[in-house]
């Protein structure tokens, strides 16, 4: 029984880690409703929710655009999301997304 629980826990952990990415994020004037936390990602499906974390702050944003189109960046977040994360002054920051 204990082996089955351990195996199930490892499978869950592995699937969560497989979906996590880390890299550079920037912000843009998103195409969502005013004040909505949205983002642009190259591969995640439109409408999916992504958790973006930066220095202990985490937000949830909805994928509603494709991008970023600058090499080395993994996500563009809306200005509302950038304010919530505290990356407005930086312009580009290293984040973790899941």
From TrEMBL:
Residues 1-20 form the signal peptide. This is Rare lipoprotein A. Residues 22-96 form the RlpA-like protein double-psi beta-barrel domain. The keyword Lipoprotein applies. It comes from Bradyrhizobium macuxiense. PROSITE patterns: PROKAR_LIPOPROTEIN (PS51257). Keywords: Lipoprotein, Signal. InterPro entries: RlpA-like_DPBB, RlpA-like_sf. Pfam families: DPBB_1.
